[in-house]
Amino acid sequence: MGRGSSGPPATAPAPAPRGTLRERIDRLVREAVKFGAVGGVGLLVNLLVFNLVRQVTDLQVVRASVIATVVAIIFNYVGFRYFTYRDRDKSRRTREMTLFLLFSAVGLVIENGVLYTATYGFGWDSPLQSNIFKFLGIAVATLFRFWSYRTWVFRALPVREPVTRGAPSDGSRTTQRVP
Question: What pTM does this model have?
């Protein structure tokens, strides 16, 4: 017994297995890497389309950017659904697509809001400046998109809990996984 205690020592709850936290971190890292791979190619698509539209048309900077963003959103949906989040719930595609488009639209506003502010608020509209602020807008919008897509759009399938079947006569409990 401990010094000054009058009863049996308190038992601390067993710590959670290290593997569970480690596994969650590993899954998050793998997800972020896959998200980054799709997003990296989407970034290239976005910037290439943006510069191509600016070179071959007379569209204003932000309009060219919106077109490029829409093309990248379409590319990214295919990449996220069939690569990054292919193991996620596929049962509600209409809901998934609606939420994806909603959050993508918010990302589009964030991304192009940065470019709009730089171009029309500060007059920074040279090709180099436009690309810098387009990239900066994409970076800010990507943080929002990562959070919203993984939280609301591509939801994880629920974890199957062990199901208890029948109690033995000795009072002990057994668990059995049900497929």
Answer: 0.71
